[in-house]
Amino acid sequence: MASTSSLSLSNSLLARSVSHHRPGLCLSAASPLPTFSGLKSASSSSPAQIPIAALRRRFLQRQIRAAAIETLAPAETSLVDNSVNTIRFLAVDAVENANSGHPGLPMGCAPMGHVLYDEFIKFNPKNPYWFNRDRFVLSAGHGCMLQYALLHLAGYDSCKLEDLKSFRQWGSKTPGHPENFETPGVEVTTGPLGQGIANAVGLALAEKHLAARFNKPDCEIVDHYTYCILGDGCQMEGVAHEACSLAGHWGLGKLIALYDDNHISIDGDTEIAFTEDVSKRFEALGWHVIWVKNGNNGYDEIRAAIKEAKSVKDKPTMIKITTTIGYGSPNKSNSYAVHGSALGAKEVDATRKFLGWPHEPFHVPDDVKKHWSRHIPEGASLESEWNEKFAAYEQKYKEEADVLKSIITGELPAGWEKALPTYAPDSPGDATRVLSQQNINNLADVLPAFVGGSADLASSNLSLMKKFGNFQKNTPEERNIRFGVREHGMGAICNGIARHCPGMIPYCATFFVFTDYMRAAIRISALSQSRVIYVMTHDSIGLGEDGPTHQPIEHLASFRAMPNVLMLRPADGNETSGAYRVAILNKKRPSVLALSRQKVPLIAGTSIEGVEKGGYIVSDNSSDNKPDVILMGTGTELELAVEAAHELRKEGKAVRVVSLVSWELFGEQSAEYKESVLPEDVTARVSIEAASTFGWERMVGSKGKAIGIDSFGASAPAPVLYKELGITAQAVIAAAKELC
Amino acid sequence: MASTSSLSLSNSLLARSVSHHRPGLCLSAASPLPTFSGLKSASSSSPAQIPIAALRRRFLQRQIRAAAIETLAPAETSLVDNSVNTIRFLAVDAVENANSGHPGLPMGCAPMGHVLYDEFIKFNPKNPYWFNRDRFVLSAGHGCMLQYALLHLAGYDSCKLEDLKSFRQWGSKTPGHPENFETPGVEVTTGPLGQGIANAVGLALAEKHLAARFNKPDCEIVDHYTYCILGDGCQMEGVAHEACSLAGHWGLGKLIALYDDNHISIDGDTEIAFTEDVSKRFEALGWHVIWVKNGNNGYDEIRAAIKEAKSVKDKPTMIKITTTIGYGSPNKSNSYAVHGSALGAKEVDATRKFLGWPHEPFHVPDDVKKHWSRHIPEGASLESEWNEKFAAYEQKYKEEADVLKSIITGELPAGWEKALPTYAPDSPGDATRVLSQQNINNLADVLPAFVGGSADLASSNLSLMKKFGNFQKNTPEERNIRFGVREHGMGAICNGIARHCPGMIPYCATFFVFTDYMRAAIRISALSQSRVIYVMTHDSIGLGEDGPTHQPIEHLASFRAMPNVLMLRPADGNETSGAYRVAILNKKRPSVLALSRQKVPLIAGTSIEGVEKGGYIVSDNSSDNKPDVILMGTGTELELAVEAAHELRKEGKAVRVVSLVSWELFGEQSAEYKESVLPEDVTARVSIEAASTFGWERMVGSKGKAIGIDSFGASAPAPVLYKELGITAQAVIAAAKELC
């Protein structure tokens, strides 16, 4: 692609500014920074009272302090400067207009944003979903106006001028943090810090995997980069560290992270809480590390660094780019004051003066418009060239092309459901984690991009696909992912995989209780409408001796409360297959499968179809929809309800047993159907579940009884725990007898 | 203290084995390890079929592979060897007896465990709560039999032989993972990986803080170390990374972490997922790093490393100790097979033969018993010497001694509650986060060890204590803790602070939605009965434009379902003060305070006393406990219930308004009290809360209506969101009219 570059920095400065990080260099280079001495606040002097020349001097002093380089006078106006300032002011103006938002990051990152989108990222603005586009993630999601401004300049229909003007307003396409489901061109949903870089790891993993499987010596049909901008906040988050450790381990050479090193977070200078040597850490994680010291104007250095990063094929690259948050704001730059609030009219005015920007709000100069306008035809060309390439590929490699196409479109192979195991009534029972393993392995046969793994519990979660090896640096074509003990990173990486293209279906596994470690990622799955399958075994006190640290109690309730999650707790083989069916078919929501460590029998009356309704009658000896009592259960406790029903029926009672495998799906059924399962008039209802009773009033009503566990568990063999904690058929019988 | 050491390694080997880590050294030294080639499994040959000499050869081969050192033949039997083998076999036998547990870590870590407890850790076994003891945390909690065996040898009453024999059984003091509330001598509850090392950071922070405040040039009254054993699993967890980054930043010189580098996790060789350079990473985090290459027999090296670590005062130390998991088991050592299952009778037999251990299960040789028996008198002496020191300190520094005593005992200062702000009915309203700030600052005046901070949101959470500075490396006497953007680490560190001694009262703050990042730590607060106060602001869609990534929906429900947590959502000033009162007084449970970003008025009828009951009548114009309708709300929506009641009363209805600020506390009230607030006969009930309706059936009953939000929020100004999502007084009025 053609590019116009600022020539404001000499080549010799360039050579010094783009430096490979060596141990010690970072610290000594950073030492000109004054010692930290407390929270800085924005100057209390009003810009109106100070001549602009003085402001400029003060600003330059700030700059030097922040970026530790010698020349910082705004460069002679050039096209790139104009473009960069356009980005800055689109962000400033949109935040001002909304009187809400985060101007600081876009102002500081505009240069890297410009260089990335204008010169490096492959995209087609008129088809944001073109498969072979480069992926871009703004991990520091609060700076979303950077992304919206770039999408605007690049010609995306989602970010027209009126969209920027309705930034952060009800119904707009430009919400307060990037949301893939609102804004075509945004790949993933970010904002909660650290998630985005982990998503980027997942996106890069997907690319590496698909490239390894589908590329041919004569045709690289899968070939794109994943770029990510992250900030100091992301760097501090454990989830980012987990994912970056894996990215280094996997050698994700096409992952390029741009670290906006601005030394400011909400609490002030990062010196107050973040003094680790980030570059050295990333080297320890197996990354290639580059430091661009002048991220404010150093277009050439940024460009050179990205080029170098692209050339490093065996390692991901972290480009630390030292910038000034709120660059251009004379009184607020380089302070937390510019992070998350509108600048205010006066400071906007001062910033306009400082940056030599005489334009009205939301102005895009003609030369900038013209310059960027080439991306529409260029993007169309990129896609059509790739389409031609794909046509050639298809001719030569029909079978692979068909599979790849199905991954690109997400269309499920005809008849895939037949792979789900079914169980005759006389089948032997087993732990639902074992039955889950059968599903996973059968699905591995029919779903071409079903990939996943466990956070170091594969042998307990039973989550390995036996016919495949491990996805590793040198075996990226394989489909078992080894996440190590990194639950949070695992979830966030799976979100990235799921968002790569519609046919990628990631699953991930750990003990159910450890969803606590990854809950922020699961919530992003739900919010971003990403089909991640969470295979969560050891789902109750039934795990026994490991004790209360390992025994989930409140987790079922906690996910039933979370929007857009399917919480599934199958009772036996047929329900486990049903759970997988539902999980695969629900393309726009994640599923959490709670699975048992311990064996359960196959229960007469369970079915895949039943699971699809979420709640259904498993057995019944009543008539006219008027049982004496309804017994309900989920998972391993459905058996206890069945056993209790058996006893009660012996005593002449009309007893209905209902499985409530997924409350969400049951809630979505028609009123008639719900009434046919839980008739309003039948108030004698007993539920049993080895978990918190919280929420069960919805099912048992005010007169019913919920049997569960409202304290932590304990360390003992599972049968002892069930007895001691009162999760027994006898308890169900006793409760039922009190009610009918 | 006297010590007996194995002399099996020459001094020259010692010199090589205790080496300071330098960049590159770790990798090159590790290179003798064969390239990873997939999951290893235990040998399928039965030990019975193979002569013991061959087993020994095979074992030695495994050893060399794992530890990369030259001589590993079991040393000549010595007292230390005997002690170490006693620890190994107490673990092996207890796991065997329970047929459940984790023998691998205790077998590999017995040497470091022995050296630590026998030679370094200061403790008094007959008073596990002696204030100035060294703290020990087993972060790799699954290896708890190591700790129980050590506590047994050391003379703790919690781990008598019968306790070891009832390992992992119902009602025993030796649960499947270490639990401070079950086993005196265990400092914190571990098992969920990474938590323990973060707790250790909190413990070490508390020591550094108290030492800085109370030590005098002539009297170091607070002076102890924090030791922690962590494994590969802990090292992979993001929470550990977050906490260790802070430990380096804070220069916690008296924190000494022993990293059991055994290269095995549940999924096999760590090569499959964990190839980062851990030592280099810890150097980047500002730690002192030492590598002990022979952790299996190298007592001298371990000892030398700990001594060195103790001498490094300005940095925490990570001692990487290379060990063999399951050391001594001929067929299972150095494989995941020995991690989490009983060895089985045959392998136990082979292990006994290999290690030359002819004894019966649970045998403690007399010389070992005798050697360890000195810890009872020595421990008593340590404590009484310290008591004498304290008496002298008290004479000289009466005021400080009194304060320190109150921190040690946890006794609250008389009249502390008077510091809680109260509000007259005509007081102006404010955001509950602002009212929270008043509470925090008032409590800072009266509670001597009230410490805390925010995960980089201090200016949003309003969590700073204005009269104090920042706890930092060189200002550890200060009380504001700057956690950076590390929610999970923050929570786990606060657990450590809370467990240091009864008077340490930590609070920590972030946005409510980001409890998702730290949920695993909050659960440990609850389980371990630790009074941590979670100050969670921006508690609903009321935060406005930041959008759904930042708007909690399901979080209230998710904590109401979690055992032993107080979930408090105050509505105004009086309720906020009540929430703090309750949080401080509940010494054995954490409190989560959900606080608003937006302003709320002071509501007539709210009270601190009301909060203590969890639910109470705020206003009522009914008589005989028979209102026409009961309106309920929490937090910022109580105002809407009040407004609706006002309108309904104008129309002649008898309306009761109930605040349900804490469901847990309300649930603990007498049946009579509950009936007086929510009479069973009154089924016309409407609730309003800007959150998931999940669980509200408990309060509104089958006939009532719950107004809430069962989808994600959106990005828009708060008033727009309330209107668009139907959280309005009008909605309450309409629902009430349908019911009465």
Topology:
2 copies of one chain form a homodimer.
Chain A: H1 11-17, E1 18-20, H2 25-30, H3 52-67, H4 79-98, H5 104-120, E2 135-138, H6 144-154, H7 161-165, H8 195-214, E3 226-231, H9 232-236, H10 238-250, E4 255-261, E5 264-265, E6 268-269, H11 278-284, E7 288-292, H12 299-311, E8 317-322, H13 345-355, H14 366-373, H15 375-396, H16 398-409, E9 430-431, H17 432-446, E10 450-454, H18 458-461, E11 470-471, E12 480-482, H19 487-500, E13 505-511, H20 515-527, E14 533-537, H21 555-560, E15 566-568, H22 573-585, E16 591-594, E17 599-600, H23 608-613, E18 616-620, E19 629-633, H24 638-650, E20 655-659, H25 663-667, H26 671-677, E21 685-688, H27 697-700, E22 705-707, H28 718-724, H29 729-739
Parallel strand pairs in A: 2-3, 3-4, 4-8, 7-8, 10-12, 10-13, 11-12, 13-14, 14-16, 15-16, 19-20, 19-21, 21-22
Antiparallel strand pairs in A: 1-7, 5-6, 9-17, 18-20
Helix pairs in contact in A: 4-5, 4-6, 4-13, 5-6, 5-12, 8-10, 8-19, 10-19, 15-16, 17-22, 19-20, 24-29
Key descriptive features of the protein:
740 residues, Transketolase_fam (chains A, B), transketolase (chains A, B), homodimer, alpha/beta, transferase (chains A, B), metal ion binding (chains A, B), 29 helices
Description of the molecule:
The structure is a homodimer of 740-residue chains. By secondary structure, the first copy, chain A, is of the alpha/beta class. Helix content of chain A is 42%, strand content 12%. Chain A is built from 29 helices and 22 strands. The first copy, chain A, has a seven-stranded parallel sheet with strand order 11-12-10-13-14-16-15, sandwiched between helices. Chain A has a six-stranded mixed sheet with strand order 1-7-8-4-3-2, sandwiched between helices. A five-stranded mixed sheet of chain A has the order 18-20-19-21-22. In chain A, strand 19 (629-633), helix 24 and strand 20 form a beta-alpha-beta unit. In chain A, helix 4 (79-98) packs across helix 6 (144-154) and helix 24 packs across helix 29 (729-739). Chain A is elongated, with a radius of gyration of 29 Å. Residues 1-50 and 61-76 of chain A have low confidence and may be disordered. At the A-B interface, helix 9, helix 10, helix 11, helix 18 and helix 20 of A face helix 9, helix 10, helix 11, helix 18 and helix 20 of B.
